[in-house]
Amino acid sequence: MGADSYRKQVEPVLYRLSTVFLRYNPNTLTVISFLLALLTAAVLILAGRIFPFYLIIIAFVTLFLSAFLDAMDGFVARRKNISSSYGDMLDHTFDRYSDLALITGFALSLQGDILLGLLALGGVFMASYMGTQAQAVGLKRNYGGVLGRADRLILMIIAIIIEAVYPFSYVFFIPITTITILLVWFAIGGHITAAIRFRKTVADMKAK
Question: In this predicted model, what pLDDT tens digit does every residue of 4-60 receive, in sequence order?
């Protein structure tokens, strides 16, 4: 199981942290989270081209803040009792655009690979689709699998840290980077997660 399986254990901590953001509209937090994801992608692409590579640490900060605000918007909406279908749609929409921006940023970075980025996008989007498709057929959203959104954000943050400290390694004289490994796992793990969610959704539909 992925990080989403620990959702219940983490929720009390996030609930308390959300107190700081109760003055804000949760939709505002959603949009800011997306903008920070865009900034992260831009830094990943430009690091080593326009400004020194070590400033990639900026991407770590912006991605961490983006992930944190993405976790806060739902808590703020529930605590202020203003949860709505519009807010839910906005959140899911910007989550997907954030995924698109971040994976593109990794793929187009000096340590990335465009083809692997395309494969990673396919895996991630299918995993996300199968999670929400359960809702579309009248079931609860499916968070199962080995690569949920929380997993992806955690792995991206770790990858940025490693790349900032140790950008390249070689396996049998082939350049392998943490980012290429990350993209490969997004492609494979994403489709594994999609298959797991599909199987669970079909089983739940038959059990109704």
Answer: 667 777 888 988 999 999 999 999 999 999 999 999 999 999 998 888 888 899 999
Q: Is 51 helix (H, G, I), strand (E, B) or coil?
A: strand
How many residues are recorded in the chain? 208
**How many degrees, rounded to 5, is the angle at CA 165 between CA 159 and CA 170?**
75
Beta bridge partner(s), residue 169: 176
Selected catalytic residue, list 95, 99, 113, 151: 95
Q: How confident is the model at residue 172 (pLDDT cuts 50, 70, 90)?
A: low
Is 88 a known active-site residue? no
Per the structure, the complete domain to which residue 127 belongs is given by 3-207
Residue 202's identity, in one-letter code, is: V
Domains identified in the chain, total number? 1
